[in-house]
Amino acid sequence: MKDPSEILVLENCFIKIFEENDYDINSTDNWYSYSRVFLNTDEYRPTSQIGIQVYDDDKLLSDCIIGAAGGGTGIHLNSTLISYGGIVVCCSNTLFKLSLTDLNLEWKTKADYATCFGVHYLAEDYIVHGELEISRIDKEGNIVWSKSGQDIWTTAESIDNFEVYDDYILATDWEYNRYKFDFDGNLLEVDKVEPTKVEEKKGIEEKSNKPKRWWEIWK
User: Fold this and answer.
1) How far apart, in whole angstroms, are the C-alpha atoms of residue 170 and residue 64?
2) DSSP letters along 81-98, please?
3) pLDDT tens for each residue of 140-193
4) How far, in Å, CA of 149 to CA of 169, rounded?
5) Residues in contact with 125: Cβ distance below 8 Å, sequence separation at least 6, in sequence order
6) How far is CA 93 from the centre of its chain?
7) CA–CA separation, 97 vs 104, rounded Å?
8) Cα–Cα distance between 37 and 69 in angstroms, integer?
């Protein structure tokens, strides 16, 4: 038995999420056999694969594995959202939306040419923090707008580089250029920032490791 990377609690259901990058859909030697496979790649083996199981107490209700090409991703604080009766998951360069509790694929959208670092709420839509693009995606999976910067959307520290506020978005690129966008994708300003101090990193990481409170973000 494999330990999940994340467990989400929704009413009486438990959603177990597994990093499955070594999973071979053509093999019979995997630790578990997923009943459905949803991939967003035709020519290559998926770079990242994520397995999902939904339980009602100890009863398995549904399961699937998703996969996509591009840069590798794992399970972390901003890689999943529960929203509009389903679960939204970043996997490599693609954003997947699966229904709950049956895990039917509602849509999959290539949200970045390289990697999707995280997904965030924005009104009835989502903001995807990608490596090359910041994108607004509506609840049907359509890209509303996307924006690139002078360099990739992360810093050497990989912390304190992206945030969605009440009325704007702040994103910092590799050269520490910080961009301020409104929710329509308009660039409001750009300035230069200093790298996050090393001594601040521990506190930020500890904050990011706090458990999610799903009852506060169900939509």
Assistant:
1) 34
2) EEETTEEEEEETTEEEEE
3) 999 999 999 999 999 998 877 899 999 999 999 999 999 999 999 999 999 999
4) 13
5) 136, 137, 138, 139, 144
6) 9
7) 9
8) 14
Residue 111, judged by CB atoms within 10 A of its CB (0-12, 13-18, 19+), counts as buried
Question: How would you list the strands of the sheet with 143-147, edge to edge?
Answer: 116-122, 125-130, 134-137, 143-147
The whole-angstrom separation of Cα 103 and Cα 139 is 16
Question: Taking the model in full, what pTM does it have?
Answer: 0.86
Spatial contact of 34 and 46, defined as CB atoms under 8 Å apart = no
* Residue 76 tokens, joined: 């972390």
| Amino acid letter, residue 117 | F
Residue the block writes with tokens 């890689």: 79
Round to whole Å and give the CA distance between 39 and 15. 20
